[in-house]
Write a structure and sequence with these properties.
mainly alpha, single chain, 129 residues, 2 domains, Helicase, Ruva Protein, domain 3, two-stranded antiparallel ribbon
Length: 129
């Protein structure tokens, strides 16, 4: 398995898809990186030569924020929003959706109100006497 940025990339998939297993590298960034290195995006990851792997490592680790560095950057950004107590920061503190989504029906998991089936959240019907 090729190892790039501390992540084992699956060998049996195309390199374009395999690069997306790295946190912070999506499909569009993977295509951009492969275009820079002039590697065929449809080649399997197991068919890469060691020089190609080293070239990918060098570009990804030096030019882009990925994995731990990206996690840290996001954590600092959210902490800043909480500290200045803006709207988004307050939503983060309360554990609610931040980007304007409705909360009446669609944020059950965020609010902690998980219903397994449609009727499971309702009260039981009164028993006949």
């Amino acid at each position: 398995m090729p190892r790039i940025a501390g992540v084992n990339i699956p060998e049996n998939k195309q390199i374009e898809t395999s690069l997306t297993y790295i946190y912070g590298v999506g499909l569009s960034l993977a295509k951009k990186i492969l275009k820079q290195t002039k590697i065929d995006p449809f080649i399997k990851a197991s068919e890469l030569k060691p020089e190609q792997i080293n070239e990918l490592k060098e570009i990804i680790e030096k030019k882009y924020k990925i994995e731990g560095e990206l996690h840290k950057y996001i954590m600092i950004s959210v902490k800043r929003l909480r500290d200045i107590n803006c709207w988004k920061g307050a939503r983060h503190i309360k554990g609610l959706p931040v980007r304007g989504q409705r909360t009446k029906t669609n944020s059950r998991t965020v609010r902690g109100n998980v219903r397994r089936t449609v009727g499971s959240g309702r009260h039981a019907a009164p028993s006949p006497k």
